[in-house]
Amino acid sequence: MSAVPLPRDASLVELRPDRLTFQTRECVLPGTPVAFRLIMEGGALPLEALAEACLVVARDRNGYVFHSRLSLAGLTEGDRSLIALFIAKGRGSPTLGAPEVRH
User: Fold this and answer.
1) C-alpha span between 51 and 10 (Å, rounded)
2) What are 44-96's pLDDT values in tens digits?
3) Enclosing domain of residue 77
4) Fewest beta carbons within 10 Å, which of 7, 17, 32, 42?
């Protein structure tokens, strides 16, 4: 299965060494690979991770708000180490970006 791009309205909720959670209005079903860029200290790290949960956290006039949780267990050791180092340093706020489009 090919990875789906990160939803356009995705915003980071939580970053831990083992998982990442983002908020969106799109339901990303568990088992779906998601392609995205994790932006830390101005540098973008292109990643792909499997969705492990999609939780409904709110409902309003515009519909549902979901928290999608991605497992970072399938990342390379180097990528996981970079993320853990960033978290340990505690500087800056990470953000999410859409994956780069390859032509």
Assistant:
1) 14
2) 999 999 999 999 999 999 999 999 999 999 999 999 999 999 999 887 899 99
3) 4-97
4) 42
CATH at 36: 2.40.10.220
- Residue carrying structure tokens 């309205």: 9
Q: How far is it, in rounded angstroms, from Cα 60 to Cα 9?
A: 16
3-state secondary structure of 45: strand
Q: Has this prediction a pTM greater than 0.85?
A: yes
Q: What count of residues does the chain have?
A: 103
Tell me how many domains the chain contains: 1
- Does the pLDDT at position 40 exceed 80? yes
- Measured CA to CA, the distance from residue 47 to residue 29 in angstroms comes to 18
Residue 29, in any domain of the structure: yes
The token pair that represents 3 in the structure block: 């990875």
